[in-house]
């Protein structure tokens, strides 16, 4: 009897933990933007959702200053600058509509 009860508690705890993942992700994406000098005109978003720098660019994010980027794909969690996911920042500041 105690094995079933323990199993039920585990299943409920696991379900609750997994059900909170979308809430935690939404919260991080809805957080206020950090101070930044990210120039939206230097980036484009492709139809697959990937962001690209269209030219070499220098910008600040939070306390990280004079960050340089000169190309390459920007995907979720591929570049964390000043503690901020650059992909999330680009989506929030520059728009989510792909080119």
Q: Can you describe this structure?
A:
By secondary structure, this protein is an alpha+beta fold. It has 2 domains: 31 residues; 67 residues, no CATH class. It is 37% helix and 23% strand. The chain is built from 3 helices and 7 strands; from the N terminus they run ααβββββββα. The chain has a 3-stranded antiparallel beta sheet with strand order 1-2-5, with helices on one face. A hairpin with a 2-residue loop joins β3 and β4. The longest helix is centred in the N-terminal third of the chain and has 18 residues. The N terminus is likely disordered.
Give a summary of the structure in a few sentences.
The chain is of the alpha+beta class and 99 residues long. 37% of the residues lie in helices and 23% in strands. The longest helix is centred in the first third of the chain and has 18 residues, at 2-19.
Number of strands: 7
> What's the story with the biggest beta sheet?
3 strands, antiparallel
Low-confidence stretches: 1-27
Number of helices: 3
Order the strands across the largest sheet as they lie in space: 1-2-5
- Taken together, the total number of domains comes to 2
Computed CA radius of gyration, to the nearest angstrom: 19 Å
Strand content: 15-25%
Give the quaternary arrangement of the chains: single chain
Distance between the termini: 59 Å
Order of helices and strands: HHEEEEEEEH
Helix content: 25-40%
Summing up helix and strand content along with how strands pair, one would put the structural category as alpha+beta
* Averaged pLDDT: 77
Instruction: Give the CA-based shape.
Output: globular
